[in-house]
UniProtKB/TrEMBL annotation:
The keyword Transport is assigned to this record: no
Main location: membrane
Organism, scientific name: Marinobacter halophilus
Membrane topology term: Multi-pass membrane protein
A GO cellular component annotation in the UniProt record: membrane
Keywords, ordered alphabetically: Membrane, Transmembrane, Transmembrane helix
Protein's name according to its UniProt entry: Yip1 domain-containing protein
Subcellular location: Membrane
Pfam family, one: Yip1
Transmembrane segments: 30-50, 70-92, 113-132, 138-159, 166-192
Source organism, top-level taxon: Bacteria
Domain (Yip1): residue spans on this chain: 7-183
Amino acid sequence: MLLSHAFGLFTHPDQEWASIKKERQHPTRLYVAYVVILAAIAPICAYISTAHFGWSAGNERLIKLTEISAIQLSVLTYLAMLVGVFALGYAINWMAKTYGAKEEAVPSNGMALAAYSCTPLFLAGFALLYPVPWFNALVFLVAACYGAWLMFDGLPIVMGIEKDQAVMYAGALLTVALVILVSTRVGSVIIWNLGVGPVFVSG
């Protein structure tokens, strides 16, 4: 049932958001049955493409990651995605009162909005099976834009606020999302410096 929402958000988002709010899934169940599953797409595809397919450098030389390096980076990416979605859901609930919504003791609406808004980014992970940097960047850019629109579209429905409040609310949440992204990138650099950085080999 939860996974069916992933497709509904692309075909009839308003109806899907209304259905999501009506369900009021517990955050733990939503996280385990939806986020944990879909967030694994990108790390798994990235592991397959970087360790087995590789990508071409400027002189057509095939570059790959070692098996261990690919696994390490995939696991780190997976953990960063899980933390990022949780942090975004927490921020949505924490900011609720500021924008006229109801802050919940159990952040069902906030976590649902964060999880389902990230659906395009989760599914964009399949693009990593075709390891061409410009193509991957384009797909994830389009996915990020649609995810941001989904959040804006879902805020009034899921959080029960006016459309004009949703504009400011969404702007604040996008700022939070950027902070989360930068924080995870900085964390990755720190971990790389501790000896978990990428190790390349010729294909």
